[in-house]
Amino acid sequence: MSILAPSRGALRIDNAVKYYGEGSARTLAVDHCTLDIRPGEICMIVGPSGCGKTTLLNAVAGFHGLDDGSIHLDNKMLCGPGQPQAAVGPDRIVVFQNGALFPWMTNLDNIAFGPVAQKRLRRAEARDKAAQLMRDAGLAGHEFAYPGEISSGLRRRVEIVRALMNDPTVLLLDEPYRALDALTKSVMHEALLETYYRTGITIFFITHDLEEAIFLGHRVVIMTARPCKPKKIIEVDIPHPRDYTILTSKRFRELLAEADAGVHDEALKSFALGEREG
Amino acid sequence: MPSESIVVTKIHPATSVRRQRLTFARPRLRALISFVALLALWQAGSTSAAWSGHGWPIISLVPAPSVVLTAWAALLTNPGYWQSWGLSFTRVALGFFAAVLVGVPFGLLLIINRTWRSIAFPVFELLRPIPPLAWVPASIIFWPTQELSIDFVIFLGAFYTIVLNTLGGGDEIDQRLIQAARSMGGSRWNIFRRLILPSVLPSIGTGMQVGIGITWEVVVAAEMISGGGSGGDSASGGGLGFFLWSSYIGGSYPDIIVGMISIVIAGYLSSAAMRFLVARATPWARGH
Fold first, then answer.
1. Collapsed DSSP state (helix, strand, coil) of residue A15
2. Rounded to two decimals, what is the model's pTM?
């Protein structure tokens, strides 16, 4: 099975509903959210802090259930009627906001973890493949360092390689570059695109950063402040492959203005609600 | 000095090296000075009756460093003294390793099993405020040999600390790491062995470092109370705590000081060994 198979990675979210809390504290986090992500699409989810974007991502990953609605991946139901919570699985790998590399394993062993845990590969084979993927991603030389010994930018790249090692159908990125400075971020973006051009994997990417969203995404989905549902979907009609030169293009600026207009109201609403940054 | 400061401003790279050396050397130099001053003051105070006509309070009753050193030199060839070292170390090692052997699995079980936690933790918390030394009489009654009763009290000294630290480490496990591992297909055992265990390891290490310090406090007191155990037949050979106590009973004051210093050295050596072990076991934590 090639990971470049174009028919792979269709993620459909239908009328997803999620409440938080109990009794009088019960609040609606996700409100009848419907989203159709195409195979091999980079879909950027933008919304104000605490709007429930991460709730949606966690439901796809299987970290918690939905109160209503369904999620399908390639026509296979992950969760829906009769199964409120998706099973976690290596077909959907999350890269977290602050990273979740295992600090006590070398970068190489972090990357080799998945296939060994799944009993798909023996440890030695997994290490060979991990080393190969690290070389492909330009991470050679960092194999035997611990995550704590490399820069946060490199850590994110190692984590993406670790995700890819599981041959996932969709990558779930939850603001992975949030804590990075602007320069590191732009290097990360190009590295991610480069990986994407090699693998063609579907990417579900949550961010606050509109420039990031437009630079990377095929589509940018702007979410409403809590409860969360798509408010506006922007088709980014700048052709891939892209590089940093598009950042100064007229079309990029136009799309940015369009997205900004959509996000601004929601940000104000979220601010009024007093949401904590999440 | 002024000429030096001119050099400093002229040659920049050399400056920083020089400054660094100075900042490294100064605290050590100060430590050395205060150590020498303490010895001098001690020597002066101890001999104050002889040279100033009247003895300074308290300190004039303490044997002078020179006297202590002479007493120590005599003890170095005394097999009983070394037997005391051996006995105390054996007791600490036995009690401490028993505490690790029981405490770490006990703590880990508290982390991973909520049922076990609700059963065992309240009892643990109920018994914990009892100081280890308060167990000495009961311990002597219910253990068949005096040696075992000393080991048990030492065990208790380290046990509570090791369990509490292990448990504390468990509370700090990053749930995202667990989620990531589950996503990648990690089984429960896999997650326990490759995530929970290493995640708790630094806290276990902290517990062991604190614990070994407590064992030395306990062993000394336990040996004083229980009369030295199996080695109690000779005054110097019943453990360092017993040696200290019997030096007091026998009125050999310099030996009391030798005993105190010996315990400092023994405690320092054990702590250093523990630090080394912990650093080796958690290589990812270096530089943090």
1. strand
2. 0.80
